[in-house]
Amino acid sequence: MLLNTRKAATTTILKERRRWSATLLAVVCTAYLLAICGAAALLWTASDRWWPATVLLFAPRWTLAVPLAILIPLALIYHRRSLVILAASGAVLVMAVMGYTFSLGGGSLQRSDGSLRIVSYNIHRSQLDVEAFRKLIHATRPDVIALQDWTSKHEGVLFDEPGWYTQRDGELFIASRFPITRSREVLSPPTEQPGFVVRYGAAQAYELLTPDGPITLVNLHLASPHEALQALRAGQANFAEQLEFNSQQRDIESARIDAYLATLQSPAVIVGDFNTPRESPIFRHYFGRFVNALSARGSGFGLTHVSMASSVRIDHVLLTGGFDVRECWLASAAGSPHRPMITDLTPDRTATLQSASAEP
Q1: What is the rounded distance in angstroms from the CA atom of residue 274 to the CA atom of residue 51?
Q2: pLDDT (tens digit, 9 = 90+) per residue, 16-38?
Q3: How does pLDDT run across 203-234, given as a tens digit for each residue?
Q4: Of the ranges 56-65, 191-200, 342-351, the best mean pLDDT one
Q5: Distance CA 341, CA 333 (A)
Q6: What kind and span of H or E run contains 5?
Q7: Could you tell me the pTM of the whole model?
Q8: 21: Cα within 13 Å, side-chain hemisphere
Q9: What is the pLDDT of residue 81?
């Protein structure tokens, strides 16, 4: 009798502990969901406006998934209904925070007739693996290559074959199978420094004479947040000031590029290292109305810059009109922490027909 009573008491205690464990787990899972939703809200509304949100903007966001590795097994043991909360957390994390996109497009070396293939890549100067990038050029056979952080020591190796029209403007470089009929400086870096190291942006516009008519290609590299983030990691007292200055500078540079694009009469393709993820209010304000090639026809998280300190999508290919995106994908890195972005465009025949029908 006494033994049965003890067993019953033990069973009651274990059930009570399991109930409290399940309740606590449900609370923790709900708190995690709210935290992920809060992170998404910070990214989309406060980044580049408030320095803690800006830090999150450039941080490796996959680290926010680490709690799932602990919470999912616990939910399977103690409270399976919490798996619904964790599934919702995962969906918000993957889509709204980490920026997963899906489309039926995919990387293909095959070219369609009449397509325009563009490669954009920040080579990080001497970090480029020249032989690997040379093989990529030969394999993909692009029509236009737009490079940032360029150094001319690579030109003789990469573009030694006939048929290339090339032009360097500071750190920006373009190689085109089509004649470069005009070029214009869109951004010129200021000469003053605010008391700490700043990498100002650069942008150059080129008119290319393609078989379908002239197009404008803007090759850009906006102000880098690298030094400000380094100051944060080093614990410098003015890191917040540096982060805010960089956000302001990218805002100024984006506004100037936007103003230039508004003057164009022909279709434009904007490529390069924006140093600005698509979640940033700056990016959405100035560039959100354009077609984002990787968002339209790419799949995956689209991380264009991967390092120990940062895993983000800061390189973009944007279209103002006149083209349809056939495919867009990222190739393997060739020495640089950035990844080459390859985009296949085809003329927008609908726009062409509408333009023709509007003529007197």
Answers
A1: 18
A2: 666 788 899 999 999 999 999 99
A3: 999 999 999 889 999 999 999 999 999 999 99
A4: 56-65
A5: 10
A6: helix 2-41
A7: 0.89
A8: 14
A9: 92
Cβ–Cβ < 8 Å for 66, 60: no
Measured CA to CA, the distance from residue 310 to residue 224 in angstroms comes to 13
> Which among 95, 136, 92, 90 has a CA at the least distance from the CA of 117?
136
Select from 202, 130, 211 the least CA-distant residue to 170. Answer: 202
Per the structure block, which two tokens stand in for 261? 């694009």
Looking at residue 192, the DSSP 8-state letter turns out to be -
183 burial class (0-12, 13-18, 19+ CB within 10 angstroms)? middle
Q: Are 345 and 116 in contact (CB under 8 A)?
A: yes
Q: What does the alpha-carbon distance between residue 102 and residue 302 come to, in Å, rounded to a whole number?
A: 10
Q: Which amino acid is at 142?
A: P
Kindly provide the residue ranges of all beta strands, DSSP E only, lying in the chain, ordered along the sequence: 116-122, 144-148, 165-169, 172-176, 180-187, 202-210, 213-221, 268-273, 291-292, 305-306, 311-312, 315-319, 323-330, 341-347
β-pair type (323-330, 268-273): unpaired
How far, CA to CA in Å, does 27 sit from each of 24, 92, 154? 5, 18, 57
**At residue 331, what are phi and psi to the nearest 5 degrees?**
-90, 170
Q: Of 182, 168, 101, 110, give the one whose Cα is nearest residue 140.
A: 110
321 versus 173: the higher-pLDDT residue is 173
Q: Could you tell me if 144 and 178 are in contact, meaning their C-beta atoms sit under 8 angstroms apart?
A: yes
Average pLDDT over residues 40-52: 97
Instruction: HSE, CB side, 13 Å, CA atoms: give it for residue 55.
Output: 11
End-to-end CA distance of the chain: 104
